[in-house]
Specification:
This protein is an alpha/beta fold and about 475 residues long. It folds into two domains: about 240 residues, Type I PLP-dependent aspartate aminotransferase-like (Major domain) (Aspartate Aminotransferase, domain 2, 3-Layer(aba) Sandwich); about 140 residues, Aspartate Aminotransferase, domain 1, CATH 3.90.1150. It is about 40% helix and about 15% strand. It contains 15 helices and 17 strands. The chain has a seven-stranded mixed sheet, with helices on both faces. The longest helix is centred in the last third of the chain and has 24 residues. The radius of gyration is 22 Å and the shape is globular. The chain starts with a helix and ends with a helix.
Length: about 475
């Protein structure tokens, strides 16, 4: 199969097939493939490198990205890694890399670096929505009952949509009250436990979503509650830990897997890869149980080679081609995340804490913005602290708060005057915050890795962190000017 056909086939590559590529064409091929195999949201708009999500198909080093709770855009480190990988995959002379071996290596890197254990199975998916659909299919197979799905409200979970299945009833629990204040974890646990008890009494199965970190830095329900619910109702309760934001250490995910929980992860968001790369991580015992049972119809968007070889007879898929674009996006994401992991832990914590302090200080003096106060029970979690919701004051013009937030979000990306420069500034998309709206400002793994690498070259922390402070000042200068115009 020739390269042109590969590109026309949504980034699909036959197993162990090869395509010659010249140096002149490799970059163009990469950018076409990176925008394939994930749906129209990642296709560049006509005449532009920008996608409908606001991300770019190639690095944009002059733009400022503090949007890791939404989608990340590809950076120089990830782009270089993906380009090198594509060159190996398409090399005719050296036969450097088998596509199927490459996918297995990606799975192993996710298992060891993200999940903290090789004793698991990794299923690739274009995004969190597809991962949730796989988990729903697995839960239905395990419980063999009509399902009750219990999850945090969609406004807090990344890209959450209720199941499009008549056997699934979705119940959403709020993590905030009507004023936007955090609800206690005990109250969230009690609500979810009560709904689960009612469902079990009615003979239903349960898929419980445990949100490790939300788009505004919240969590719920607790892992302890999820473990207890599963222990008293084995075979009736399935747990999916939503670690999309990757703001927990690998040891925590390894612990989730050891308790038999499925885990959703994303290579975009905090990890810093391009959008449309996610994965479902299964405990080995659950994977073995599935392998010995009857087939499961895989959700739309999941191909044969997205699934590890020992589970390919279990899932009935749409086709047998390799989603090359999805693999390349994961190559980019892992290059970024592994660079983050290579930074000493104490330095990572120092960078994240400094980001949180500086962002909250600038937000406090910015026109029309109120940074959410840090909760006293979570002040030691630097990863969650580095998500800074910017609560927007009610607009003073005759526009509603949602329209105002959308306009701000879009205007930050556009040029708006020489006084603050014409730098595109990216933050997370608008979020409902009680009766207000908020924009989510957040640190990402590539930022931490860059500071760590500058320090490794001998620079002091203050100098190495300087570019981050400069970017934050530019962002808030632009936001302050835009807010003053309202």
């Amino acid at each position: 199969m020739g390269t042109a056909r590969v590109l026309a086939g949504f980034g699909a590559l036959p197993a162990d097939g090869r395509n010659p590529a010249t140096p002149e064409s490799l970059t163009a091929q990469l950018e076409m493939l990176m925008a394939s195999g994930g749906g129209p949201d990642i296709w560049p708009q006509s005449g532009s490198i920008r996608t409908p999500l606001g991300t770019s198909i190639r690095p944009a080093p002059t733009e400022i990205w503090f949007a890791s709770t939404g989608y990340s855009s590809i950076g120089l480190r990830g782009y270089k890694s993906a380009l090198e990988t594509l060159g190996q995959l398409t090399s005719v002379e050296s036969m450097q890399l088998s596509p199927t071996r490459w996918l297995d290596e990606l799975r192993d890197r996710i298992a060891r670096g993200i999940a903290g254990t090789p004793d698991c199975a990794v299923i690739f998916a274009p995004g969190p929505a597809e991962v949730r659909n796989i988990a729903r299919a697995i839960a239905t197979r395990i419980t063999r009952r009509p399902m009750r799905e219990i999850a945090a409200t969609a406004s807090e979970a990344a890209h959450f949509e209720p199941a499009d299945d008549e056997e699934y009833e979705t119940v959403e629990i709020a993590l905030r009250d009507g004023r936007g204040d955090r609800r206690s974890l005990a109250d969230i646990d009690n609500d979810m436990r009560s709904i689960a008890a009612e469902a079990l009494c009615e003979g239903a199965g349960i898929l419980l979503h445990v949100l490790d970190t939300s788009k505004t830095g919240l969590t719920g329900p607790s892992r302890r509650m999820a473990r207890g619910l599963g222990a008293i109702s084995p075979g009736r309760v399935c747990v999916l830990v939503d670690a999309t934001e990757l703001r927990c250490p690998a040891e925590t995910i390894a612990g989730d897997l050891s308790h038999g929980h499925m885990v959703l992860v994303s290579g975009s968001h905090f990890a810093g890869g391009p959008p449309a790369c996610a994965a479902l991580i299964l405990p080995r015992a659950l994977a073995d149980e599935l392998a010995s049972g009857e087939p499961i119809l895989a959700p739309h968007g999941i191909g044969r080679f997205d699934i590890p070889s020992d589970l390919r007879t279990v899932f009935v898929t749409d086709g047998g081609l390799i989603n090359l674009g999805l693999g390349l996006r994961w190559s980019a994401a892992l290059a970024e995340f592994e660079a983050y992991l290579a930074v000493p832990d104490d330095v990572r914590q120092m960078v994240l804490a400094a980001f949180s302090r500086k962002a909250r200080h600038l937000a406090a003096i910015c026109t029309g913005v109120d940074p959410e106060a840090r909760p006293l029970d979570d002040v030691d979690n630097a990863l969650r602290e580095s998500i800074v919701p910017l609560i927007l004051d009610e607009p003073r013009m005759a526009v509603d708060s949602e329209a105002h937030a959308e306009t701000l979000h879009e205007s930050l990306i556009l040029p708006c005057g020489v006084s603050v420069g014409d730098v595109a500034c990216h933050v997370g998309p608008p979020i409902q915050f009680g009766s207000n709206m908020a924009l989510s400002l957040s640190a990402g793994a590539p930022m931490v890795a860059d500071v760590g690498q500058r320090m490794a070259k001998g620079l002091s922390f203050d100098i190495a962190f300087g570019p981050v402070k400069r970017d934050l000042a530019t962002l808030f200068g632009k936001l302050d000017m835009l807010q003053a115009l309202v």
